[in-house]
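Hey Z.,

So I finally got round to the magnesium ion thing we talked about over coffee. Here's the setup:
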Amino acid sequence: MKQSQLFGHTLRENPKDETSVNARLLERGGFVYKNSAGVYSYLPSGWRTLEKIANIIREEMNAIGGQEMFMPALVEKKYLDATKRWDVPIGFEAKEKNEKTANFVMGWTHEEVLTAIATRYVNSYKDLPFAAYQIQTKFRNEPRAKSGLLRGREFIMKDLYSFHSSEEDLKNFYEKVKAAYFKIFNRCGLKAVYTIAAGGVFTASHTHEFQVITPVGEDTIFVCLKCGYAENKEISKLEEGDKCPECRGEIKMEKAIEVGNLFPLDTKYSSAFNLQFINSEGKKEYVIMGSYGIGLGRLMGTAVEIHNDDKGIIWPEEIAPFKIHLVEIAAKQAEENSVKEQAEKIHEELIDKGMEVLYDDRDDKTAGEKFADADLLGIPWRAVVSQKTLEKDSVELKQRNKKETKLVKISELLNLKFSAKGGSAFGGKI
Ligand code: ATP
Ligand code: MG
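And the result:
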């Protein structure tokens, strides 16, 4: 991708009305555009990252048997009437212009919709278990929508729902989701703490949250420094300095962002919609359910909050919009064209290799401006092509999170594996 053609260029100044780090860096980098408070557009480079997050989530959800589907954003009143959730103030009501009262709400959750669908397909215990998820936009009139992608009034969520014939089966699946969530957050470059949270509104058992510790978090958790045991302050009886109930380690109080959660729903929705199955003894029982959410934008915003420095974003490899930033520094004199020609050739060859490359081909920027933009954009690898590097048939390679640079032969560059896991493309030499 040529940077001169990329829709959404970098801004010199921080946007005035943004206070959070993620919103400032993402807007300055041309990743997102704020349309209204808590309402953002993803520009092409930001969308690349969001899609990567979506695909990581898809892979891990599919690996535990989740089936992807897609439900409507317009949710008719009858669904929420069934669980008395029509009047929950978080909803944006949607009505036809000529109507006096709304008959729809913009979907802010989909338990009711999916449970209603399931009544057509679940009859016997043989139809269970199953788990279905979607990646879809939710709408909530959040009173505190001021932290960029962390709390939107419109935001993209992965919501997974599972259906079981026994408590035990739900428990087993719950553990699988927990393991999948750890993988997802790790792959997105985040250490998340599995936290015991509020008792379900509907069940005796607790719910669970995945929390990323950072001072900008809205939640407070008590977490054991030794084993990672954690409780949300909302339900915890722990205090800082207490001994961990699991391992006797020391408990600390930390601010954290909730990036995902797990809820045992038991029969709250199945009973509201009369979702029953015939068990192996021929008796009718209510289906036991669970629901599991991850906010994709919140995850992206959290990654930026955690991975940045005073110059800009430092994208974790697997969710970086591009893997390598090819920066052409053309001399003003006669050689100018040869640098451009060479850089263009390298760009083409990297593309042929299947590499995701952003090529800074801009003629109206100084070297200093290009380096500053490269740091702001935070692409994991930067390869500089200049007259000086070309004299040695090389490019100057640097990792965004390291100081060192190294001259690497162009032929070598094209064969390097910029793997997410292998660490360094220099084989550990840098
Ligand atoms: P919170 O307590 O932060 O409001 P929640 O309990 O309302 O979250 P859910 O309704 O279960 O969360 O949503 C599932 C996931 O969606 C959350 O774990 C979070 O990652 C994300 N999420 C929830 N609300 C928002 C929002 N307003 N903006 C962005 N992501 C959100
Ligand atoms: Mg909420």
